[in-house]
Structures are given as C-alpha cells and as structure tokens.
Amino acid sequence: INDLLAQNKPYTVRMLIPSGEIIVDDLVFGKMNFNYNDLEDFIIMKSDGFPTYHLANVVDDSQMQVSHVIRGEEWISSIPKHILLYNQLKLVPPKFSHLPLLVNIDDRSKLSKRQAHASVQYYIDKGFLPEAIINFVSLLGWTPESTNQEIFTIDELIELFSLERVHKYASAVNINKLIWFNSMHLRNFIDNDLNKVIELVWEKIPEEWKNKTNKEFIGKVIKAMKERLELHSDFNEKCRYFFEPPVIVQHVVESDLKMISLECKQTNLTFLVGKDVLKCFAKFNDFYLVKDDNTNLTTWESFFSTLKQFCRSEKIPVKDMTMLLRVALTGDDKGCQLNDVFAILGFSECYNRISSFFLK
Questions:
Q1: Longest dimension (CA), the chain
Q2: Is 181 buried (19+), middle (13-18) or exposed (0-12) by CB count in 10 A?
Q3: Could you identify which of 13, 86, 218, 353 might form a hypothetical disulfide with 45, taking C-beta atoms 3.0 to 4.6 angstroms apart as the criterion?
Q4: Does pLDDT of 191 surpass 90?
Q5: What residues form DSSP beta bridges with 261?
Q6: What secondary structure, in 3-state letters, does the chain show?
C-alpha cells in the first residue's frame, strides 16, 4: 500500500464491515434485523478525494443536528451502512422512519420524479390548490386515529399526524381522488374566502372578459357554479356562457325526421330535440317574450310558472322545454341552476338569447 501511495496511484477508501448483526427500530416498520455478512466493504471515499453519498449523508445530518430521517422505503437497505458509519465516527444516529412507496394506480409501478405528473408544480399549474394537494398526499399511506374524516386543514393535519399511523404498504396515486379533494377545498374557499378564489380566476380569464365585467360579477358566477367547479382552472371552460352568448346551429336529422340536432359552436356539443318541442318553444317565445306585454315575467318564479302552465296546455313535458331553454341560454345541457343563470345574466340578456335562438 505504501509503495502504491508513493507512486501516487489513485485509490478509494472502503468501510471494513464487521461480523454479526444489527437491530434497528424504525418508527414505521418497527424492529428490523440486518446481517453484516450480507454487506461488502463499501466505498466511502472516491478516487478523486470526494466522499460518497453514504459518508457525506451521515456527516451532513450529524452536523445539521438532524433528529429524524424520514425517507422512502427504498432506502431501508442503506440503514446498516449508515448506522455503521455513525458508530465508527462516534456520532449519535437519528431516529429512522421509512415511508411506503407511491405507485401508479394503473400498473402499480413506482411513481417517479421523472414523470411530469409526479411534480407538485405540475398540479399547481393545472389549477390544484396547495391545501388540497397536502390533504391528498397526507392520506397516502397515513390514516388518522378514530375518525373517518377525509377533508383536513393544514392545522388539523399538524395536530393529528403521527408516524406511528403510517402504513407499511405502498399507496396508489388516484388522480380522480385528488380532483375530488380539490373540489371540496375549493367549495370551502368559495364559502369562507371567496376573494381568494376570485383572484385565482381573475388571473386566468381572457382580457376581453375582464374589459366587460368586474370581480363582483366573477364572484356571483363562482358561487352559482360552486357544485360544478372541480378546479379553479375549470372556470374559463365551464363558465364561458356567462360572458359569450352561445352560437347554436340547427340541423335536420335525416335518420329521424321528427328530431332536430342542435350544435353549439363554442363547445362543439350536440343535442337532439323533438321538432314538436322546438315548435312549442318557438310558440312560447312569440307569445310571451317578443310581445310588449311581458313585463310581468320579471322574476324567475313568474317566468318558470308561466312556462310550466304553457307546457301543460301544449302537452309538452316541462323537462324537455327546460332542457331546450338551458341549451338556448348556455349552449350546454347541464350547469348551474337556471334561476342563477337568469339572475346573473339578467332577464333582458336571457330574452335576447332566447329570441336569437330562433333567428338562426
């Protein structure tokens, strides 16, 4: 060895592994036995004079006075090496906790940081709330004691969390569940901190919408769409009709001459409606909305009551007329309550949209 050193030959430094075994008490997996005979004399200093990860990790954690090491279970095999280094350097080892892996729900493969959807920033950019992400991740591999509660604030999680309740098995990442968590947190903010949601939405809406509206109007739309918004980034797509009248084009259905196809240009959605319903809706429009004596239909209650009476007299199901009314106003067959649409858009705008529907 001295001759090689004198010749300046490159060399590495290895840890001499003793015989016997070591028992480590992990805060998640409990007591684990490791046999030193299963280890080889591992390198702790490379030939370029730099320490390997194992040595650097142990020294750095000690210098930083780290009390607890919490890491993924793939690092369990490194425990005997690290404990050996702590002992040889006469350092006090921290408490170890190894967390179960996160896996993809489809093929149970390990979730990798190299996958775009494993990045927290990826979800923030998609419109997920930090509070929802933290809530979701906290329940991947951990269960609170004595409660079936799923929605938690960060303060509640801090109060309840303990490593002793962490699972020992891998947890599948279900993005649909994350979306549900986000919708619940979003509703909570809408109810208790609406301005926060308004600001998030305001940043993303088109400039032309900003030029013809204000944040108070945005707040009204958000509250009306509370049950429909899963992400605040859904706003532009799901709430478009509050800012742009739908353009509906009617087509004859050649395979069924009793039906008419309605296509919304903005959403590319297509709806089938019976010719009799369309004719009845046109008659309702002509009789009640384009005449000068419609001043009594100034509330949703009076409008809908009149519509129901008209449907009964024409023997047309109210639900068919209501669906057609929704398509004429929004370009969609689902959304928030129609009374909210009337209240937010105003009756004048609603009547204009209904009339325009029959001018195409």
A1: 111
A2: buried
A3: 13
A4: yes
A5: 251, 272
A6: CHHHHHCCCCCCEECCCCCCEEEEEECCCEEEEEEHHHCCCCEEECCCCCECHHHHHHHHHHHCCCCEEEEEHHHHHHHHHHHHHHHHCCCCCCEEEEECCEEECCCCCECCCCCHHHCHHHHHHHCCCHHHHHHHHHCCCECCCCCCCCCCCHHHHHHHCCHHHECCCCEEECHHHHHHHHHHHHHHHHHHCHHHHHHHHHCCCCHHHHHCCCHHHHHHHHHHCCCCCCCHHHHHHHCHHHCCCCCEEEEECCCCCCEEEEEECCCCCEEEEEHHHHHHHHHHHHHHHCCCCCCCCCCHHHHHHHHHHHHHHHCCCHHHHHHHHHHHHHCCCCCCCHHHHHHHHCHHHHHHHHHHHCCC
Half-sphere exposure of 294 (CA within 13 A, CB side): 17
The predicted pLDDT at position 99 comes to 92
Nearest of 175, 275, 278, 285 to residue 230 by alpha carbon: 175
pLDDT at residue number 150: 94
Tens-digit pLDDT profile for residues 101-125: 888 888 888 877 666 566 788 899 9
pLDDT at 296: 62
Quick one: pLDDT at residue 290? 61
- Specify the pLDDT at position 81: 95
Residue 225 has pLDDT above 70, yes or no: yes
pLDDT of 120: 86
Listed in sequence order, the residues at least 6 apart from 242 whose beta carbon sits closer than 8 Å to its beta carbon are 221, 341, 344, 345
Give the residue, 109 or 162, on which the prediction is more confident: 162
> Could you tell me which residue, 242 or 259, shows the higher pLDDT?
242
